[in-house]
Amino acid sequence: MDLHVIVENLPYLLTGLQLTVILSLVSMAGSFVGGAAFAMLRLSPWWWLRWPAILYIDIVRTVPLIMVIFWAFFLVPVLTGHATTPITAALFALILFNTSYMAEVIRAGIQSIPKGQVEASRAIGLTYLQAMRHVVLPQALRNMSPALVNRFIALFMGTSLVYIIGVTEFFRAANNVNNRVYRSYEVFGFVAIVYFVCCYALSLASRALERRFAVPDGTGHDARTVTSVFGEDSQHERPPAGGRRRAPRPWLPSL
Amino acid sequence: MAYKFDWGVLLVYRHLLWQGLVLTVQLSALGMVLSLVLGGVIGLSRRVEAKPVRWLCGAYIEFFRNIPLIVQLFFWYFAVGLEAFPAAVIGLTVYTSAYIAEVIRSGLQSIPRTQIEAARSFGMTPYQVIRHVVLPQALMRVIPPLGVEFINVIKNSSIAMTISITELTFQTQQIESLTFRGFEAATAITILYVLLALAIVALMATIERLVRLDLRLG
After folding, report:
1. 8 Å CB contact of A160 and B70
2. Which residue among A62, A158, A195 places its CB closest to the CB of B193?
3. What single-letter DSSP state applies at residue B181?
4. What is the DSSP string of A27-52?
5. d(Cα A103, Cα A106) in Å, to the nearest integer?
6. Is A224 near chain B, with CB under 8 Å?
7. Which segments within chain B are labelled E, that is strand?
8. What is d(CA B171, CA B173) in angstroms, rounded to the nearest whole number?
9. With an 8 Å Cβ cutoff, are B99 and A195 in contact?
10. To the nearest whole angstrom, how far is the Cα of A64 from the nearest Cα of chain B?
11. What are the counts of helices (DSSP H) followed by strands (DSSP E) for chain B?
């Protein structure tokens, strides 16, 4: 054990970690917008909007993230006609990939709101988009908040893969250090601990949110959410629809 | 778009695609079987009376689930110094088993305590309760999320390319560097991954049918 290596290279590693955080946040924001769009397309009454969305969501979810990263790396130059920087390709890939998962999370969130509420909003004269914006989405967002945090954890861990196209995020930074000093135990042990601390803290937050709102995300695609939601009596612990402790805050950006 | 497609490269390099497919299937199959066993044991151990055992299993799950697979693979390969293939299998197994343990646990948890108490109260032994009450029901609930985890194993096996396993995703890069036809290679390999996922979906549907039949026979 020679922790000196870590201390010496800490500033460099932290710069990498910073890029990891930025990549995760930007692609989370991007895939939130994309996911909301695809969720609405998927719930559309018209098959010619619904089917392409289903096709996209289901195909991307069966493909490894590394493949999507390669896709971005090969596809973006073909589409735009000139080479891209690794960071652009990485962001493109992460957003493309996570959009399909976010679409399912958001769809489940929207579907967790009783249909009657939309019908009531339409009856008092709101347009479909207004009903979404002011009635459905603020509540749906709260219901899906645990699943959103889980998606963020997956995304945060996923950013480590963009190292293969040369983005110097945390994992690649650690690799660079290791290639220089040959201290695999210390370097990768440190990387593992940092990822663990970040992701575990986030998963505790997700669980706290889940206990509070206790609504299944319905996608069945994340073991984390499945566990406690279907816990022994969690259905009975759900607060009644009218008895929320806090009024829904419409902090969603307008769509 | 000034790009001219040349799908012929796929035919020329079909041996690379085949080699990649075989490795991906081998790696995934090993990963699935081993992580099902390991994850099953850990998932069941979370229901054991002894508190230290429960705590240890919980810690195992949280630890391996919250570290990216690529970091774990690098650890087994570079720090521990295993050969590439064993490192990939162990990494994939340990990572996936944490997820599968959670699936198993939630499957067990979905059975109301009252059923177990009722079964015990008319004289079934704990083994009989597990065999005839808990297991048949838990199995049904566990199969769909297990299918998702198995598809994840196939997807995650692609990360083994970073420790020099020449599986499918590696071959994308290989064909790209040999021919500059990354686009065609990526398309072909994406289709192969979709087909593999569909195979898992079909497999799980078959198993689900069999289990349901078993239940009906009692």
Report:
1. yes
2. A62
3. -
4. HHHHHHHHHHHHHHHHT-SSHHHHHH
5. 5
6. yes
7. none
8. 5
9. no
10. 4
11. 10, 0
- Pairwise CB contact (< 8 Å): A223 & B106: yes
- Summarised one tens digit per residue, pLDDT across range A128-186 is 889 988 998 889 988 899 999 999 999 999 999 999 998 999 999 999 999 998 888 99
The Cα-based distances of B90 to A34, B64, B83, B95 in angstroms read: 36, 12, 11, 8
Nearest residue to A60 via CA among A88, A101, A32: A101
Look up the pTM and report it: 0.84
Give CA–CA dist B41/A104, Å, rounded.
31
How far, in Å, are B23, B32, B82, B153 from residue B93 at the CA level?
A: 16, 7, 15, 9
Tally Cβ neighbours within 10 Å of residue B173.
18
Short-list A96, A89, A97, A113, CA closest to A165: A89
Token reading at B97: 């088993």
In the block, which residue shows the tokens 């054990």? A1
Query: How many whole angstroms separate alpha carbon A236 and alpha carbon A87?
Result: 47
Query: How far, in Å, CA of A56 to CA of A94, rounded?
Result: 15
Q: Report yes or no: A108 and A146 within 8 Å, Cβ to Cβ.
A: no
Q: Terminal CA-to-CA distance of chain A, rounded, Å?
A: 52
Q: Using the structure block, give the residue that is written with the tokens 């370097």.
A: A187
pLDDT bracket for residue B216 (50, 70, 90): low
- Distance between B121 CA and the closest CA of chain A, angstroms: 20
Specify whether the CB–CB gap between A245 and A142 falls below 8 A: no
Give dist(CA A183, CA A189) in Å, integer: 10
Q: Contact A140/A112 with Cβ under 8 angstroms?
A: yes
User: How many residues does this entry show for chain A?
Assistant: 255
With CA atoms as reference, report the closest residue to A196 among B64, B127, B108: B64
